[in-house]
Amino acid sequence: MMAQVEQEQRDQEPLLAGLTDSLGFLLRMAQLRVFGSFFETLGQFNLKPGEFSVLVVIGQNAGVRQGLLANALRIKPAHMTKMVRNFETRGLVTRTVPEDDRRAVELCLSDEGDRYVTELAPNFYEFDRAQQDPLTKEEMETLRRLLRKFNRYSERPSATLYDLGGGK
Amino acid sequence: MMAQVEQEQRDQEPLLAGLTDSLGFLLRMAQLRVFGSFFETLGQFNLKPGEFSVLVVIGQNAGVRQGLLANALRIKPAHMTKMVRNFETRGLVTRTVPEDDRRAVELCLSDEGDRYVTELAPNFYEFDRAQQDPLTKEEMETLRRLLRKFNRYSERPSATLYDLGGGK
DNA sequence: TATTGTTATACTCTATAACTATA
DNA sequence: TATAGTTATAGAGTATAACAATA
What we know:
Two copies of one chain form a homodimer.
Chain A: H1 2-16, H2 23-42, H3 49-60, E1 64-65, H4 66-73, H5 77-89, E2 93-96, E3 106-109, H6 111-129, H7 137-150, H8 162-165
Antiparallel strand pairs in A: 1-3, 2-3
Helix pairs in contact in A: 3-6
The first copy, chain A, binds a DNA duplex through residues 48, 50, 65-67, 75-82, 85, 101-105.
Protein backbone atom coordinates (compact mmCIF):
# COMPACT_ATOMS: atom_id res chain seq x y z
CA MET A 1 0.00 0.00 0.00
CA MET A 2 2.64 2.48 1.07
CA ALA A 3 4.93 1.01 -1.59
CA GLN A 4 2.24 1.78 -4.12
CA VAL A 5 2.14 5.42 -3.10
CA GLU A 6 5.90 5.62 -3.43
CA GLN A 7 5.75 3.96 -6.83
CA GLU A 8 3.22 6.54 -7.99
CA GLN A 9 5.45 9.29 -6.72
CA ARG A 10 8.33 7.97 -8.81
CA ASP A 11 6.15 7.42 -11.87
CA GLN A 12 5.06 11.03 -11.75
CA GLU A 13 8.52 12.45 -11.34
CA PRO A 14 9.32 12.66 -15.09
CA LEU A 15 6.26 14.87 -15.43
CA LEU A 16 7.62 17.29 -12.88
CA ALA A 17 11.09 17.58 -14.35
CA GLY A 18 12.93 20.67 -13.03
CA LEU A 19 10.24 21.44 -10.47
CA THR A 20 11.76 18.83 -8.14
CA ASP A 21 14.74 21.18 -7.86
CA SER A 22 12.68 24.08 -6.60
CA LEU A 23 13.02 24.71 -2.88
CA GLY A 24 9.49 26.08 -2.55
CA PHE A 25 7.99 23.07 -4.31
CA LEU A 26 10.03 20.61 -2.26
CA LEU A 27 9.01 22.32 0.98
CA ARG A 28 5.34 22.23 0.01
CA MET A 29 5.43 18.53 -0.91
CA ALA A 30 7.34 17.66 2.27
CA GLN A 31 4.83 19.57 4.38
CA LEU A 32 1.90 17.78 2.74
CA ARG A 33 3.58 14.50 3.62
CA VAL A 34 4.23 15.41 7.24
CA PHE A 35 0.82 16.98 7.84
CA GLY A 36 -0.81 13.92 6.30
CA SER A 37 0.98 11.68 8.77
CA PHE A 38 0.05 14.09 11.54
CA PHE A 39 -3.65 13.50 11.01
CA GLU A 40 -3.19 9.75 10.60
CA THR A 41 -1.25 9.45 13.84
CA LEU A 42 -2.63 12.23 16.04
CA GLY A 43 -6.10 12.65 14.55
CA GLN A 44 -7.60 11.21 17.75
CA PHE A 45 -6.63 14.40 19.61
CA ASN A 46 -8.83 16.61 17.43
CA LEU A 47 -6.02 19.13 17.03
CA LYS A 48 -4.54 20.66 13.90
CA PRO A 49 -0.79 21.20 13.71
CA GLY A 50 -1.16 24.95 14.22
CA GLU A 51 -3.40 24.45 17.24
CA PHE A 52 -0.95 22.01 18.73
CA SER A 53 1.90 24.53 18.39
CA VAL A 54 -0.14 27.23 20.11
CA LEU A 55 -1.04 25.01 23.07
CA VAL A 56 2.56 23.83 23.49
CA VAL A 57 3.98 27.34 23.45
CA ILE A 58 1.39 28.59 25.96
CA GLY A 59 2.26 25.61 28.16
CA GLN A 60 5.93 26.49 28.07
CA ASN A 61 5.32 30.21 28.58
CA ALA A 62 2.51 30.71 31.07
CA GLY A 63 1.09 34.23 30.78
CA VAL A 64 2.46 34.91 27.31
CA ARG A 65 0.91 37.85 25.48
CA GLN A 66 -1.41 36.84 22.69
CA GLY A 67 0.27 39.19 20.22
CA LEU A 68 3.76 37.91 20.96
CA LEU A 69 2.52 34.37 20.48
CA ALA A 70 0.93 35.26 17.12
CA ASN A 71 4.17 36.90 16.04
CA ALA A 72 6.40 33.98 16.99
CA LEU A 73 4.20 31.40 15.27
CA ARG A 74 3.39 33.66 12.29
CA ILE A 75 -0.30 33.36 12.91
CA LYS A 76 -2.36 36.42 12.01
CA PRO A 77 -3.83 38.25 15.04
CA ALA A 78 -7.37 37.89 13.70
CA HIS A 79 -6.94 34.15 13.39
CA MET A 80 -5.25 33.89 16.78
CA THR A 81 -8.22 35.56 18.43
CA LYS A 82 -10.59 32.94 17.04
CA MET A 83 -8.29 30.07 17.94
CA VAL A 84 -7.75 31.24 21.53
CA ARG A 85 -11.47 31.89 22.04
CA ASN A 86 -12.10 28.37 20.81
CA PHE A 87 -9.58 26.97 23.30
CA GLU A 88 -11.26 28.99 26.04
CA THR A 89 -14.64 27.52 25.12
CA ARG A 90 -13.15 24.04 25.22
CA GLY A 91 -11.77 24.79 28.68
CA LEU A 92 -8.12 24.39 27.68
CA VAL A 93 -6.87 27.98 27.97
CA THR A 94 -7.56 30.95 30.25
CA ARG A 95 -7.42 34.58 29.12
CA THR A 96 -6.38 37.24 31.65
CA VAL A 97 -6.29 41.01 31.16
CA PRO A 98 -3.29 42.26 33.18
CA GLU A 99 -3.68 45.26 35.54
CA ASP A 100 -0.72 47.18 34.12
CA ASP A 101 -1.94 47.15 30.50
CA ARG A 102 -5.61 46.55 30.14
CA ARG A 103 -5.41 46.34 26.34
CA ALA A 104 -3.43 43.12 26.50
CA VAL A 105 -4.39 39.48 27.00
CA GLU A 106 -2.23 36.96 28.85
CA LEU A 107 -2.67 33.27 28.10
CA CYS A 108 -2.29 30.25 30.39
CA LEU A 109 -3.25 26.60 30.18
CA SER A 110 -6.10 25.60 32.46
CA ASP A 111 -5.57 22.50 34.62
CA GLU A 112 -7.43 20.54 31.98
CA GLY A 113 -5.35 22.11 29.22
CA ASP A 114 -2.21 21.18 31.11
CA ARG A 115 -3.31 17.56 31.42
CA TYR A 116 -4.24 17.57 27.74
CA VAL A 117 -0.83 18.87 26.61
CA THR A 118 0.99 16.52 28.97
CA GLU A 119 -0.83 13.59 27.39
CA LEU A 120 -0.31 14.93 23.90
CA ALA A 121 3.39 15.74 24.02
CA PRO A 122 4.84 12.20 24.17
CA ASN A 123 2.57 11.18 21.29
CA PHE A 124 3.77 14.13 19.27
CA TYR A 125 7.35 13.26 20.09
CA GLU A 126 6.80 9.73 18.83
CA PHE A 127 5.12 11.06 15.70
CA ASP A 128 7.87 13.55 14.94
CA ARG A 129 10.59 10.94 15.38
CA ALA A 130 8.74 8.54 13.07
CA GLN A 131 9.02 11.01 10.18
CA GLN A 132 12.54 9.80 9.41
CA ASP A 133 11.72 7.36 6.59
CA PRO A 134 13.26 7.17 4.02
CA LEU A 135 16.15 9.26 5.35
CA THR A 136 18.86 7.84 7.56
CA LYS A 137 19.02 9.10 11.13
CA GLU A 138 21.97 11.28 10.23
CA GLU A 139 20.26 12.69 7.15
CA MET A 140 17.17 13.64 9.14
CA GLU A 141 19.35 15.36 11.74
CA THR A 142 21.07 17.29 8.97
CA LEU A 143 17.72 18.21 7.41
CA ARG A 144 16.45 19.57 10.70
CA ARG A 145 19.69 21.47 11.31
CA LEU A 146 19.62 23.09 7.87
CA LEU A 147 15.97 24.05 8.18
CA ARG A 148 16.67 25.59 11.60
CA LYS A 149 19.47 27.64 10.11
CA PHE A 150 17.39 28.61 7.07
CA ASN A 151 14.68 29.86 9.43
CA ARG A 152 17.24 31.89 11.41
CA TYR A 153 16.93 29.79 14.51
CA SER A 154 20.11 28.97 16.35
CA GLU A 155 21.63 25.77 15.01
CA ARG A 156 21.54 24.18 18.44
CA PRO A 157 18.02 24.51 19.84
CA SER A 158 17.62 25.91 23.34
CA ALA A 159 15.65 22.82 24.33
CA THR A 160 14.48 19.71 22.60
CA LEU A 161 10.89 18.73 22.08
CA TYR A 162 11.68 15.62 24.04
CA ASP A 163 12.00 17.63 27.26
CA LEU A 164 8.31 18.27 26.95
CA GLY A 165 6.92 14.92 27.84
CA GLY A 166 9.97 12.78 28.36
CA GLY A 167 11.50 13.94 31.62
CA LYS A 168 9.50 14.50 34.79
CA MET B 1 15.23 46.21 7.89
CA MET B 2 15.95 42.58 7.08
CA ALA B 3 18.33 42.50 10.04
CA GLN B 4 15.45 43.64 12.22
CA VAL B 5 13.28 40.77 11.05
CA GLU B 6 16.08 38.32 11.80
CA GLN B 7 16.57 39.85 15.24
CA GLU B 8 12.88 39.41 15.99
CA GLN B 9 13.10 35.81 14.86
CA ARG B 10 15.95 35.18 17.31
CA ASP B 11 14.21 37.06 20.13
CA GLN B 12 11.18 34.84 19.74
CA GLU B 13 13.09 31.61 19.66
CA PRO B 14 13.20 31.07 23.46
CA LEU B 15 9.40 31.19 23.42
CA LEU B 16 9.28 28.34 20.92
CA ALA B 17 11.67 26.05 22.76
CA GLY B 18 11.41 22.46 21.52
CA LEU B 19 9.10 23.39 18.67
CA THR B 20 12.14 24.43 16.62
CA ASP B 21 13.09 20.76 16.57
CA SER B 22 9.84 19.66 15.00
CA LEU B 23 10.14 18.82 11.30
CA GLY B 24 6.57 19.87 10.54
CA PHE B 25 7.02 23.24 12.24
CA LEU B 26 10.35 23.86 10.51
CA LEU B 27 8.85 23.02 7.12
CA ARG B 28 5.93 25.34 7.69
CA MET B 29 8.13 28.26 8.73
CA ALA B 30 10.50 27.68 5.82
CA GLN B 31 7.61 27.61 3.39
CA LEU B 32 6.19 30.85 4.76
CA ARG B 33 9.61 32.43 4.20
CA VAL B 34 9.97 31.15 0.62
CA PHE B 35 6.40 31.96 -0.39
CA GLY B 36 6.80 35.44 1.07
CA SER B 37 9.85 36.05 -1.11
CA PHE B 38 7.96 34.59 -4.06
CA PHE B 39 5.35 37.31 -3.90
CA GLU B 40 7.95 40.03 -3.32
CA THR B 41 10.02 38.97 -6.32
CA LEU B 42 7.47 37.52 -8.75
CA GLY B 43 4.32 39.35 -7.68
CA GLN B 44 4.38 41.26 -10.97
CA PHE B 45 3.40 38.07 -12.81
CA ASN B 46 0.10 37.72 -10.95
CA LEU B 47 0.73 34.04 -10.32
CA LYS B 48 0.60 32.06 -7.13
CA PRO B 49 3.23 29.36 -6.52
CA GLY B 50 0.72 26.58 -7.22
CA GLU B 51 -0.41 28.23 -10.46
CA PHE B 52 3.17 28.61 -11.56
CA SER B 53 3.87 24.92 -11.01
CA VAL B 54 0.79 23.92 -13.04
CA LEU B 55 1.75 26.11 -16.01
CA VAL B 56 5.35 24.86 -16.00
CA VAL B 57 4.32 21.20 -15.92
CA ILE B 58 1.80 21.70 -18.74
CA GLY B 59 4.53 23.46 -20.73
CA GLN B 60 6.88 20.51 -20.28
CA ASN B 61 4.18 17.91 -20.97
CA ALA B 62 1.93 19.12 -23.77
CA GLY B 63 -1.36 17.21 -23.77
CA VAL B 64 -1.05 15.98 -20.18
CA ARG B 65 -4.27 14.66 -18.65
CA GLN B 66 -5.79 16.95 -16.06
CA GLY B 67 -6.15 14.16 -13.52
CA LEU B 68 -2.54 13.03 -13.84
CA LEU B 69 -1.42 16.64 -13.37
CA ALA B 70 -3.57 17.01 -10.26
CA ASN B 71 -2.13 13.80 -8.87
CA ALA B 72 1.50 14.71 -9.48
CA LEU B 73 1.13 18.17 -7.93
CA ARG B 74 -1.19 16.98 -5.14
CA ILE B 75 -3.84 19.45 -6.11
CA LYS B 76 -7.41 18.30 -5.55
CA PRO B 77 -9.36 17.61 -8.77
CA ALA B 78 -12.09 20.09 -7.80
CA HIS B 79 -9.50 22.82 -7.33
CA MET B 80 -7.65 21.85 -10.52
CA THR B 81 -10.83 22.28 -12.52
CA LYS B 82 -11.25 25.85 -11.30
CA MET B 83 -7.60 26.69 -11.87
CA VAL B 84 -7.51 25.30 -15.42
CA ARG B 85 -10.77 27.02 -16.35
CA ASN B 86 -9.26 30.25 -15.09
CA PHE B 87 -6.16 29.74 -17.23
CA GLU B 88 -8.42 29.04 -20.21
CA THR B 89 -10.29 32.29 -19.60
CA ARG B 90 -6.99 34.14 -19.42
CA GLY B 91 -5.98 32.59 -22.75
CA LEU B 92 -2.96 30.73 -21.33
CA VAL B 93 -4.12 27.12 -21.61
CA THR B 94 -6.24 25.08 -24.05
CA ARG B 95 -8.45 22.16 -23.04
CA THR B 96 -8.99 19.32 -25.53
CA VAL B 97 -11.24 16.27 -25.16
CA PRO B 98 -9.40 13.39 -26.87
CA GLU B 99 -11.27 11.16 -29.35
CA ASP B 100 -10.22 7.89 -27.69
CA ASP B 101 -11.53 8.79 -24.22
CA ARG B 102 -14.12 11.48 -24.24
CA ARG B 103 -14.27 11.69 -20.44
CA ALA B 104 -10.74 13.05 -20.28
CA VAL B 105 -9.25 16.52 -20.76
CA GLU B 106 -5.83 17.13 -22.28
CA LEU B 107 -4.02 20.36 -21.47
CA CYS B 108 -1.63 22.43 -23.59
CA LEU B 109 -0.19 25.92 -23.35
CA SER B 110 -1.57 28.35 -25.91
CA ASP B 111 0.95 30.42 -27.87
CA GLU B 112 0.37 33.20 -25.39
CA GLY B 113 0.77 30.79 -22.49
CA ASP B 114 4.01 29.56 -23.99
CA ARG B 115 5.39 33.10 -24.29
CA TYR B 116 4.25 33.78 -20.73
CA VAL B 117 6.01 30.72 -19.28
CA THR B 118 9.14 31.41 -21.33
CA GLU B 119 9.32 34.90 -19.86
CA LEU B 120 8.53 33.64 -16.38
CA ALA B 121 10.97 30.76 -16.12
CA PRO B 122 14.28 32.70 -15.98
CA ASN B 123 12.79 34.99 -13.34
CA PHE B 124 11.72 32.00 -11.31
CA TYR B 125 15.17 30.49 -11.67
CA GLU B 126 16.74 33.69 -10.36
CA PHE B 127 14.26 33.74 -7.51
CA ASP B 128 14.83 30.16 -6.53
CA ARG B 129 18.60 30.59 -6.57
CA ALA B 130 18.32 33.68 -4.37
CA GLN B 131 16.75 31.66 -1.57
CA GLN B 132 20.15 30.50 -0.39
CA ASP B 133 20.71 33.05 2.40
CA PRO B 134 21.74 32.36 5.15
CA LEU B 135 22.90 28.90 4.08
CA THR B 136 26.14 28.30 2.24
CA LYS B 137 25.89 27.07 -1.35
CA GLU B 138 26.80 23.57 -0.21
CA GLU B 139 24.26 23.60 2.61
CA MET B 140 21.47 24.65 0.25
CA GLU B 141 22.43 21.86 -2.15
CA THR B 142 22.30 19.40 0.72
CA LEU B 143 18.94 20.75 1.86
CA ARG B 144 17.46 20.30 -1.61
CA ARG B 145 18.95 16.83 -1.92
CA LEU B 146 17.52 15.70 1.42
CA LEU B 147 14.10 17.14 0.66
CA ARG B 148 14.09 15.36 -2.70
CA LYS B 149 14.89 12.09 -0.99
CA PHE B 150 12.33 12.69 1.77
CA ASN B 151 9.70 13.25 -0.94
CA ARG B 152 10.69 10.01 -2.69
CA TYR B 153 12.08 11.76 -5.72
CA SER B 154 15.29 10.42 -7.18
CA GLU B 155 18.27 12.09 -5.56
CA ARG B 156 19.55 13.29 -8.90
CA PRO B 157 16.75 15.13 -10.68
CA SER B 158 15.96 14.14 -14.27
CA ALA B 159 16.40 17.72 -15.37
CA THR B 160 17.21 20.99 -13.64
CA LEU B 161 14.91 23.94 -13.45
CA TYR B 162 17.61 25.87 -15.20
CA ASP B 163 17.02 24.00 -18.44
CA LEU B 164 13.68 25.70 -18.56
CA GLY B 165 14.69 29.21 -19.41
CA GLY B 166 18.44 29.09 -19.48
CA GLY B 167 19.22 27.38 -22.77
CA LYS B 168 17.72 28.45 -26.06
C1' DT C 1 -19.67 -0.78 -12.41
C1' DA C 2 -15.62 2.11 -12.56
C1' DT C 3 -13.43 6.33 -14.13
C1' DT C 4 -12.84 11.45 -15.52
C1' DG C 5 -14.03 15.53 -14.71
C1' DT C 6 -17.54 18.92 -12.85
C1' DT C 7 -20.48 21.18 -9.51
C1' DA C 8 -21.81 22.44 -4.93
C1' DT C 9 -21.01 23.10 -0.14
C1' DA C 10 -18.46 23.85 3.87
C1' DC C 11 -14.52 24.73 6.50
C1' DT C 12 -9.73 26.44 7.38
C1' DC C 13 -6.41 29.79 6.86
C1' DT C 14 -5.12 34.18 5.13
C1' DA C 15 -5.51 39.24 4.11
C1' DT C 16 -7.41 43.50 5.04
C1' DA C 17 -9.56 47.14 7.11
C1' DA C 18 -12.44 49.24 10.47
C1' DC C 19 -13.38 49.31 15.17
C1' DT C 20 -12.78 49.46 20.78
C1' DA C 21 -10.39 50.37 24.61
C1' DT C 22 -6.73 51.46 26.37
C1' DA C 23 -1.94 53.74 26.58
C1' DT D 1 -1.33 59.24 18.16
C1' DA D 2 -0.03 54.58 18.75
C1' DT D 3 -0.89 49.90 20.39
C1' DA D 4 -3.48 45.26 21.64
C1' DG D 5 -6.94 42.91 20.52
C1' DT D 6 -11.47 42.27 18.17
C1' DT D 7 -14.86 42.03 14.50
C1' DA D 8 -16.28 41.61 9.79
C1' DT D 9 -15.62 40.42 5.15
C1' DA D 10 -13.53 38.42 1.22
C1' DG D 11 -10.53 35.18 -0.97
C1' DA D 12 -7.52 30.93 -1.57
C1' DG D 13 -7.01 26.24 -0.69
C1' DT D 14 -8.84 21.96 0.93
C1' DA D 15 -12.23 18.20 1.83
C1' DT D 16 -16.25 15.94 0.62
C1' DA D 17 -19.97 14.20 -1.73
C1' DA D 18 -23.13 14.03 -5.44
C1' DC D 19 -23.44 14.18 -10.28
C1' DA D 20 -22.98 13.60 -15.72
C1' DA D 21 -20.75 11.57 -19.34
C1' DT D 22 -18.17 7.96 -20.83
C1' DA D 23 -15.70 3.59 -20.56
